[in-house]
Amino acid sequence: MDVAALVEKLSKAQLSVATAESCTGGLIASSIVDVPGASDCFNEGYITYSNEAKMKNLGVRDETLMTHGAVSFETALEMAQGVKKRAKADFGISSTGIAGPTGGSPKKPVGLVYICCAFGDNQFQVKELHLSGDRTTIRKAATKEAIKLLELCVDKIED
Question: pTM of this prediction?
Answer without folding.
Answer: 0.97
